[in-house]
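REVIEWER CHECKLIST
Item 1: Sequence provided? yes
Item 2: Single chain? yes
Item 3: Sequence as submitted:
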Amino acid sequence: MTVGEKIKLALEYNGMTQTELADIMNLPQSSISRWVNDQRIIQTNNLKTLCEALNISADWLLNLKGDKLNDIDIR
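Item 4: Structure as written out by the authors:
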């Protein structure tokens, strides 16, 4: 599942429109549309707000698994 598909799914689950999300994030609706259609990558400064607005984790959205620091031997 792409990032855009996950955003669309989260919007539907939360009963939220792209316009409502854009208002919450103080962005143009066209930015949300581009994310949903996988035409643009989400800027890191918008990632936290997006995840909070949709009640999702960045790990889920970006298909991240585990904590990479666990694999590093720090001494």
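Item 5: Key structural point noted by reviewer: The helical segments are 3-13, 18-25, 29-36, 44-54, 58-61.
Item 6: Recommendation: ____
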